[in-house]
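During the reporting period the student researcher (J.K.) took over the structure-prediction task from the postdoctoral fellow and processed the backlog of single-chain submissions. One of the processed entries is reproduced below for the supervisory committee.
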Amino acid sequence: MSKSRPFAALLLLLPLAGCGDDAPAPDPAATPAAEAAPADAGPDWSHCRFPGLALPVAARLFVVDGGTPDPGAEPGREIIRRVDIAVPGPVALLLTAPEATAWHVRPGPETELRAVIAIGDAPQRITGQRLGVHRLERSTAMGDACGGYLLRDGAGPALAAATNAIFGKPHDALYAMRIGSVVIGGTDPDLDQPVR
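J.K. obtained the following structure tokens:
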């Protein structure tokens, strides 16, 4: 009888072995695929779109890179950059610089400026006459999610995303500012020529 007691005790414990927290292994075919992490959506461009401007904008689109700072500029002070436009017909501008900038825009007599936006890390300001009704100034320093210097990594995805979101089309030419001034559409070979 002493030999049967351990066996009887074992029989009593067997039903309790299945009462733990162990859940059955999930069937891989019945398990839904794990959701992919959401992709980086990029900036929210809604604050950088022109209210009432039909897209794609019916104008030639020029981008001006003011990324080369003036060597004589004081840190923290606004830099004045001049943009002269010698292109007849409808034109749109995207102006971008990392530092605080006052963009002085001068359209030629045959230029119709449809839209102009200045985007940078620091505050941006657009001045001039005959600038039209569609004008925006945006910067990350002022809390604009769509602000920021767009050419930090060259004319790549950030610039393409901006022109498509704001103007509904890619840019026609990119001008890199060299001496605080740029002429768009000028005929003098010594003046700025588009880099693309």
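The committee noted the following: Residues 157-167 form the longest helix (11 residues).
J.K. will present the remaining backlog at the next meeting.
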